[in-house]
Amino acid sequence: MGASDSKLVFKKGIFRLSEERHIPADDAYWAQFWELPESSEDIFSLFAPADVRRTRDNALENLETLIAAVTGRLFMLRHHPSFPDHELAPDREALNCVRVLTRVLPYIYEKESLQEWEDNFFWSPRRKRSRKSSIASEVLFDGADGVPKTPVVEFEDAKPLAEELIDTITDLLFFSDLTVPKVPNGNAKVTYSIWQTGVGCTVPIATTKEQESNRCEILRLLLTLASKSMYMSLATLPQTGTKALTYICTCPDKQVVLSVLCSLLNTTLKYNPATWLAPYNALVPNHPKQVLVTSTLQFLLTTLLYPIPENPGLPTPKNYYRHYLGRLHRPSDFQFLVDGMTRVLNQPLQGSYIPGAHAAVRFSPEIIMLFWEVTQCNKRFRSFLIDTGRAYDFVILILFYALEYKTDASKQGVVRMCAFLLQTLSVEKNFGTNLNKSFDAQDTLPPAIRIVGFRGTYADFLIQIQSIYALITTSQGKLTAIYPALLAIINNIAPYLDGLSAPTCSKIMHLFNSMSSPSFLLANETNHALLRSLLEAINSIIEHQYIQNAQLVFAILRNKKRFEALRSFTLESGQEEVERRNRRRKDSGASNDPLQADSTRSSLDSLRSPVAPSSRAPALGDVPEEDGTFAIGDDEDDSDDEERPTPAASSPSENPSRASSVASPVDDDVPRQLRGMSEKARGKMPAGAQTFSRQNSTTSLGSMSQSTPGVFEPSTQWIESWLPELPLHTILIVIQQLSALIPRQAFASDPPLPATLDKIREIQLLGVDPSPPRVHSFEWSPLALGWYESLLWGFIFASEVLVSKGTMGIWNATQIKLFRVQETAPQGPSLTSPRGAVDAVGSNIVSRIGQINLRGATAPGGGGQAPGGGAQAPAPRSG
């Protein structure tokens, strides 16, 4: 449509679509939608959002006929014996049909009142003209004598329109001379040949730029079909799902699923801009190959993450994409996955003389998400990572991104995902054991994650960088939701830590001093759960690795007064201490402790009111806005690898829980909800407490109760409900026995004298028996699934805005419900940032993800946090 008169004809035709009612289905008018446009830009610029909405609202029957016409034409072309032929069955016409559907579908999805019409039109069985009749009409009309002939019209029963559409465009992804190389005459046009070498393919196939471009356009339509998710509320999405994704993910045809899965996976992980003519991807953000890789990665993730909704009374089908990803087992395949993901994530850690040449790849957050997915669903891959030592490369990379983004409000979702990913890795025993390896390459790291003068193990690096002073104490209170996950990581590796360094032990004690301070404990009703988690980690180190961790024992002895004071803590003494600290802070003008900052009120309050008043409460840098604590569950499923903690279908529950860091002990003779609790605590379990079960998960979700919103007022009864349950017994025994055997002056030396450490190692503790290691696993819940899916769709939305330069995006200016989008002020153009960005303000709902519940109480479901990644971080709409 290069000529302006053709554009004018097409635009007039679009006006007719909304102004003239009931245009006949056999009118030649409809052909212009696949004959006139010459590019995607023509359709997206001339078929404006206002035009689509006006047709939808004023002439819905015309929109229905348009969709029927372009899908019918697409189906006919796919089965035409000459397709793709520039004269008889042009591929341009098929692509224009794809583009029109990509354009109009979001405006159908956004209007909730069309749900019933959408279900009937797209998802109900129908009658249609037979394929033979449709193709015959084309052939007969263009007879050799030029005289139109009247074909015999035949009808047949057909599957729902949406199902046939998905089948057709899936076939087009592997269609000869359209998206894959041309096959010899006489062979099947749909080859299902894997696009790139890698998993499942060792023989490369030649591909042209046009074929790669066609793949992009077809993948965009598949993403658009799946994007119904964007127009659902976060609370509804995991339970209801979308019919398009359900149909795609439950496809029983193994060849189709494996061809799509391997093509998407291999294309993504073969990403290597160094082989392009313009290797500096940060300076060429819309390079065609990068656009293709982004599309393949995002559609791959939509299939892998998707939780199949449950139908009461019926078995829930498998998500076959997750199933087959979990079945990978060849070391060569795992090596391919590791190398591909490392290549992308390692980009910003490489040096270059060209500014921006090695900036973070735009889809790095999605690669982190892919790594988490493979780690969750493939047990053999986890073993490969740990056994080969590659897990520690990823630990460093994940820490880099978490620390890089920790103060960026638009990337908070990525940081949370990094924490949950590390928690997933930490549940493996060998992971914790191998962390004792010396980390000698620390000096080669970027300044963002380098510790000056560091000497120690990977465990020292992980604790010092990740849990104590970087993500907790320097995140300015933005990451309170993941503090439980960070502490759970320490808990998981604690039984295996060997020889923690003096700086690491010092930071653990600093964190204990801050968490045990009255100002922190009295800040809200759940902070004591974080203290309990830290004490459990210290106990685990002492019980399992006492001799190897004399430095930690020395640090405990130096801080014995704080441990002893905690045992005799009362409301009155705590309030007096808070007042004294406030007076000193007022006199000095500021607090020196980064953990003693002002916190806002509970996130639950903010969830209920868009503008919630704040309360002043010293806490861990705005710590725990959450209202719950550890939920008790167990890690019990050793069945199919692909079924391990995965965002899979959730069964309805009266009180669906939030995602949490779950303490799950090894023993099996205690009911799940009561494990790891004292007899006194077990007696306080609410009667009839329900659990939330998930298909394909190894962890069961304990329910939690909701706290009454409002300003928290500590009471003596409240303190007595948790103080006796703090696990101080082991630590106090150590203090009691060693203080009597080691002279007081020995503790005046810092660092300790070697003789003091030797003395500590020689002392045999009495009354301290190792308890079974406890696994604190990340748990999936409806809330967590909603957050996770919204995170992905936020990435997809932001990426599309950047690729389309903000003007012709698929979902621009549509009424998205899954998250809130705000435009930022336009930025000046630059090489690495040629246009503005999409901004979104993260809400407080995600603070409920990763919350801890030590007593197995119940908490409300619903709500959730939208993503914090992509160009900017979308956040969920209220209501």
Automatic annotation (TrEMBL):
Q: Which intervals carry biased composition (Gly residues)?
A: 859-871
Q: Where is the composition biased (Basic and acidic residues)?
A: 669-682
InterPro entries for this protein = Hid-1/Ecm30 (IPR026705)
Write down a Pfam family by its short name: Hid1
Superkingdom of the source? Eukaryota
**Where along the chain is composition biased (Polar residues)?**
690-709
CC annotations in GO: Golgi medial cisterna; Golgi trans cisterna; membrane
Region annotation (Disordered) ranges: 573-709, 856-879
| Acidic residues: compositionally biased ranges | 623-643
Q: Where is the composition biased (Low complexity)?
A: 598-609, 647-661
Q: Which PANTHER family match?
A: PROTEIN HID1 (PTHR21575:SF12)
> What's the name of the protein?
High-temperature-induced dauer-formation protein-domain-containing protein
Q: What is the organism of origin for this protein?
A: Apiosordaria backusii
